[in-house]
Amino acid sequence: MKDTRGLSLSVSVIVPVKNGAATIADLLDSLTQVDYDKNRLEIIVVDGNSTDNTRELVSNYPVRLLMEERPGLNAARNTGINHSRGEVMVFTDCDCVVPRDWVNRIVADASGNRIGCVGGNILRYYDDLLSRYADESIVPAMRRLRRREVLNAAKPPLHYAVGCNMAVTRAAIAEVGMFDEAIRYGFDEIELADRICRGGYGMVLDPEVLVKHKHRSTLRGLLKQMFRYGQGAALLLKMKGARNTFSKWILAFVLGSVAFTSLAFSMAFLTFSIPSPALLAPLLTLLLLAPIGLMIYYVHRSWKSGEKGYRPMVIYPFIDIARAVAFVLGAVYQALKPTKASRARLSVEDGVLPA
Questions:
Q1: Which one, 185, 305, 306, 348, has the greatest CB density within 10 A?
Q2: What is the distance, to the nearest Å, from the Cα of residue 116 to the centroid of all Cα atoms in its chain?
Q3: Which of the four CATH numbers 3.30.360.10, 2.40.50.140, 3.90.550.10, 3.40.50.2300 does domain 11-215+343-350 have?
Q4: Rounded to two decimals, what is the model's pTM?
């Protein structure tokens, strides 16, 4: 870890929350115990009209509580930014828990030459089956970094900072603008990370910048999350077109998935309309291609790492497929849903960022 002695950057930790009473106490307990100069640290909780006792719980901690009536994570994040004083603004969510050295590690990375964004690992808090799957899947539900990188561009599918473990510098925000409040459901932080890099700032992805996340505990909850991510992806595509790097990746993935599904349904229709072994064999091959390929991947990984157990080999592939289907359905649903035509970019000139 880089030596942070002598560094005295002021830090604002911003937590957007809505109905987070079940989890936010663990987060605030951890935030109030971080090993950083308390005179250079402020914690801001932005509540989005919670209907549970979130605000009552937050009032028991030495933090600043703000209210935000507009919907969406990005609206709450921007409210936090507008009321913050830190040179570095750090974001996490109410279902996370942070280690004592979290802020120190972020400051060490953010203190590099023209660094505008920092992201880190998000690993499981609990150790149940779905929490392990979320970390161990071929495409982790959150973020699992293997090595530290300094990037000049956000790169799909996984090389970008995630909102529940993300920091941005005030200098970068002043130059490129804040979070886009029109982006909701998911992918809400990607656009800002990409814009910061396009503005000439570097992005540090550091596995030592770690938070523990309370992953979805049910398959229904996980698939609902992926459906919303699909909605966010389609919204980003509709707003940015194919100019954005992530928009191109999203478009290719969704079109490829739709083409694969259409081909499978066409072959199934032909097989049942004209019963023939010659048609059945290609159909079964097509339908089994994804699960068998994923099983081979998990078997190879288990063998290589020395892991034991059948679950990664048998269960994970089908959860992977279900997640992909939920994502595509969410994207298609949002693509067909009418949206507001335009929005104004948030910037210093618009008067939404304090001097």
A1: 185
A2: 18
A3: 3.90.550.10
A4: 0.81
